[in-house]
Amino acid sequence: MSERLGLPAPPADGEKTTVQVNGESLSLDHLGPMVVNSDGTLSRIQNWEGMSQIEREKTLRLIVKRNRQRLDKLQSEGK
After folding, report:
1. DSSP strands (E only) in 1-79
2. With contact defined as beta carbons under 8 Å apart, do 71 and 36 qualify?
């Protein structure tokens, strides 16, 4: 069985998530958090950019909790 990698922690307030592509740094903050679907695939919240800060905070708390539950379930099923 291959080892599953966990999702990275969300950035701290004011901190940006970036990746290096061809020597250039790209910010991914506008994409929002990764969502673990019940089948183990990943997706994003489509309306993340249109949410207010308070909506984002509430959604992020929910997503973190649900992602943990889904990852635990998938791991216990051996997927």
Report:
1. 18-21, 24-27, 34-36, 42-44
2. yes
